[in-house]
Amino acid sequence: MTLHASNVSWKRGGVLVVDGVTLHPGPGRMVGLLGPNGSGKSSLLHLMAGAATPTSGVVELDGAELGSLKRKHIARAVAVVGQHAHTDIDVTVRDVVRLGRIPHRGAFGGTDADEDAVDDALSQTGLADKSDRLWRTLSGGEQQRTHIARALAQQPREMLLDEPTNHLDIHHQLELLALVARLPITSIVALHDLNLAAMYCDEVLVLKDGKVVAGGTPADVLTEDLIAEVYEVRARVSVDGNDGRVHIRFDAAARHEVAGESRVSGTRSVLHP
Ligand SMILES: Nc1ncnc2c1ncn2[C@@H]1O[C@H](COP(=O)(O)OP(=O)(O)OP(=O)(O)O)[C@@H](O)[C@H]1O
């Protein structure tokens, strides 16, 4: 069993921002959550983290509705890496990563196993030499990696990541997604970069206006037609190398044309409001 969302909808501020979404990732799979700004990716991750209750439908962990489970029970299985995290408090990188151990701690505080998990997470994210630095003095990318390390220290079975490559340079983007792909856990990752999704995800789910537009392997889903329909961008999609992964090349000159077409069909155009 794993974390499942079945036909979930969520009304926020009177607007349906997640609309009948079903996501049943296979254990150990890495699922990319794709879609334009405001399509409902973060909202779906909120629901799957148990941070909000769906208006209808159900999110279950091992067959039990999230709302019926204790937070600590959920936190032992599911780690969340959100988009924004700030603090002005003077905490070290190691302190932040240690937070990941809270769901596992007994009444008598931390153990050697907790410290081992923290060391391991720091080393996997390349932060071992920064563990004594104050978190607020790190660069945006280093702060982001600290949050990934905190999630790894949690030793979860499921990981929910909301645009984890934000702020990361290309080296660390590739390294981070390769790390998540390697982990023997189920991960759901909201991403904007379609090429990164194609490179690392086993499956992708594409949302638009809160609804699922398509789901399946990146090669099956990320077609030129889908990209034009969902993102209003023209692209060339080709198979890259011999691993069957697709590569997407965006056609900058054709953006106006696609945006123009969508205007004619009545869809809101970002380029020509
Ligand atoms: N706190 C809130 N209250 C009301 N509506 C919200 C709230 N947060 C987000 N929304 C709305 O929910 C819709 C979906 O937003 P969400 O953040 O889930 O999309 P997203 O796909 O993650 O977007 P992005 O790619 O820009 O991060 C948007 O229309 C957004 O304006």
From TrEMBL:
GO terms for MF: ATP binding
InterPro entries from the UniProt entry: AAA+_ATPase, ABC_transporter-like_ATP-bd, P-loop_NTPase
Organism: Rhodococcoides yunnanense
PANTHER family referenced in this protein's UniProt entry, alphabetically: ABC TRANSPORTER ATP-BINDING PROTEIN, HEMIN IMPORT ATP-BINDING PROTEIN HMUV
UniProtKB keywords: ATP-binding, Nucleotide-binding
Domain ABC transporter: 3-234
Entry-linked Pfam families: ABC_tran
Descriptive protein name: ABC transporter ATP-binding protein
